[in-house]
Amino acid sequence: MNAFSTRLVLAWLVSVGAACTSAPIRYYTLTPPSDKTPAFSQTPPAIDVRVVHIPPQVNRSELMIRTGPVEVMLLENERWASPVNDEFKNALGLEVLRRLGRRTGLRPVFTTLTLVIDVQHLEAELGRHALLQASWSARLSGPGRPHGSAWAATCAFRADEEIHNGYAEMVEGYQRDIAALADAIVAVLPTSASDIGAPCPTSMAGSAGGSGPTDQKGQ
To answer: CA 49, CA 69: separation in Å to the nearest integer?
Structure first.
């Protein structure tokens, strides 16, 4: 083997060694474990979650963290298991369904719940917080409403969960934010055909913050 061939073999061995020792890619999901979901005595309502906006800087496969007042970092080896829009939609739909399963008297009022979510902020800073800020609207329709009319509400939401270190804990903070959003949504839904629903929650506080209302309307 001549010197040139030897160098080629050595370069190949170095590249293979580097590839073998590179950090593994880890994948995360916002969907909570699929347990503790109450069984419905009847067919559960159809829940249509539409996430109409996700901030473009976080709407990508890599996780992003804030590292300073004007600095963020993309984590090449820490990635979402599916597109962020789908992760958020599936997680919220499951959390809302769980809460509806615990409520009595709501099922006859409607057959379809449509949720439209506009996510304005979704960011985390390790050692500090995982923040979710969004506006949302809910619409109920079904035979329980008089003359087939629908009920609707529009509110604002903010949750700020305290987190410490670790990317898994950061995602768990986002999961708690989404669970708090589900609490806020279910809290305003009417429980009977004559109920006009509750106003937007004035506080849905997490461990580092809370949520607040903008407007609530029913018809």
So the answer is: 33
